[in-house]
Amino acid sequence: MDPSIIEFIGEKSMISIIPNFSNEPLHLVYGSVGPFRAGFPVFVPLWLATHLRKQEKCRIVPPEWMELETLEEIKEEEKRSKFFTKMPCEHYMVVAQLVMSTAPDDVPRCEELRTIIKDIFDIRESKLRTSIDAFIKGEGTYAKLDNLTLLEIHSVRPILPYSLDHIARYQRMATASQRDTSMLGLNTTGSASGTGSMSNSLFTQ
Amino acid sequence: MMNYFPNYYSIEDIFVTQEKVECKVNTRLQRLGFLDAGAETEDLEPGRTINLPLWYIKELKVNNSYFTIGVPDIYKNVHKAVCEAETTHIELGRLHPYFYEFGRYLTPYDRNHVIGRIIFETLRQRVRHLLDISKNDGESKREHRLDNIESKLHEAGLRTNTQYINWLQMSGNHIRISQLVEEHQKKRKRAERSDDEGGDETDTPSSKKRSTM
């Protein structure tokens, strides 16, 4: 999956704008937005917000979480926690990227925010890689990763599923060959019991 | 994109199975002396060592009475020790360009069950390293470090990373039209063009006249 597709999905999230025009409600395929009244905030999908902003027909109201103190807290929490913390928005990177590139003037302290959001993403990404490593080297047969956003999952795809496929293939080969010969009676009893437990883990994978 | 289920037509699989494997002859094989370049007799005598390609060997039964298949040096215990210490520093590509696949084929012939475990453990240890080097592509120059499968994984990782960086800089990648739609559009355009040409034919004489004037 391309980041642009993730952006496309993220663009469906709603954001508040203050239009400088008045208009009837817009009836779109997935639902209606509006009515627009000049000076009154209204919730619209992100793609519409950026489109209107580019034509200078509105001002974007940054979401509540897009604020230095809140993000600072999230960053600290993310550093402290062993697990992934819940992000304020499922597409925080996409929203931040789109809002800050189309309307840098609407966001106070835009550059600082940009850095801190990138920091949070990097922390989470390296955490993801560390836990992947622990998972692959460990004996676990499944891993549970909550609160990951699409773009973060994208950063390890498709390399992770491909590698896991290969690893599983070699594991299957190793266990299969061991089982074959133990059935022929060429093996000692000790390693035969080992085969039993390994094939168990094979099935659960 | 990633052919990791080797099949009859996969070129990697053909390369791997071309590899020669050392075998010890166990029984007298009549009229097969030509397989051994150094042999003077017409028959292949027991006790001799010959190199046979993997594609031949893999069709033999594991406990066949003709050959004992020798484990190549790269998978021997010495290397196992190295692997267990620090796998990320081994230049796998230099050891063997198809380290994993070659090992996978030889696994059933290894009575000590070492190869199977070696390739499994080695890849398991090195995935983290692959993920890391995919993040910064500066290291990709060291060609010999990676085995064929690893370098493919590495490429996949690099591609993801460039896509992400391009997206951050808002450059390059836009959503493309799906292939089906694109084909359909092409077909329609072609049809339109052929229609136009049919209509144009009446106009061509006049345009020719104009050009001569």
Automatic annotation (TrEMBL), chain A:
Superkingdom classification of source: Eukaryota
InterPro entries: GINS_A, GINS_bundle-like_dom_sf, GINS_Psf2, PSF2_N
Pfam families tied to this protein: PSF2_N, Sld5
Domain GINS subunit: 65-166
Segments of skewed composition (Low complexity): 184-205
Domain DNA replication complex GINS protein PSF2 N-terminal residue range list: 2-61
Span list, region Disordered: 181-205
Protein localization: Nucleus
Gene3D superfamilies in the cross-refs: 1.20.58.1020, 3.40.5.50
Annotated keywords: DNA replication, Nucleus
Keyword DNA damage part of the UniProt annotation: no
SUPFAM superfamilies: GINS helical bundle-like (SSF158573), PriA/YqbF domain (SSF160059)
Assembly and binders: Component of the GINS complex.
PANTHER family for the chain: DNA REPLICATION COMPLEX GINS PROTEIN PSF2 (PTHR12772:SF0)
Family: Belongs to the GINS2/PSF2 family.
Identification of the protein by name: DNA replication complex GINS protein PSF2
Organism: Drosophila arizonae
UniProtKB/TrEMBL annotation, chain B:
Keyword list, A-Z: DNA replication, Nucleus
Family: Belongs to the GINS3/PSF3 family.
Domain DNA replication complex GINS protein PSF3 N-terminal residues, every copy: 9-60
UniProt name for this protein: DNA replication complex GINS protein PSF3
Region Disordered: start-end pairs: 182-213
Description of how the protein assembles with itself and partners: Component of the GINS complex.
Cross-referenced InterPro entries: GINS_A, GINS_bundle-like_dom_sf, GINS_Psf3, GINS_Psf3_sf, PSF3_N
Annotated ranges, domain GINS subunit: 85-168
Compositionally skewed regions (Acidic residues) per UniProt: 194-203
Keyword Nucleus set for record: yes
Species whose genome carries this gene: Drosophila arizonae
Physiological role: The GINS complex plays an essential role in the initiation of DNA replication. Required for correct functioning of the GINS complex, a complex that plays an essential role in the initiation of DNA replication, and progression of DNA replication forks. GINS complex is a core component of CDC45-MCM-GINS (CMG) helicase, the molecular machine that unwinds template DNA during replication, and around which the replisome is built.
Alphabetized CDD domains for the sequence: GINS_A_psf3 (cd11713), GINS_B_Psf3 (cd21693)
Subcellular location: Nucleus
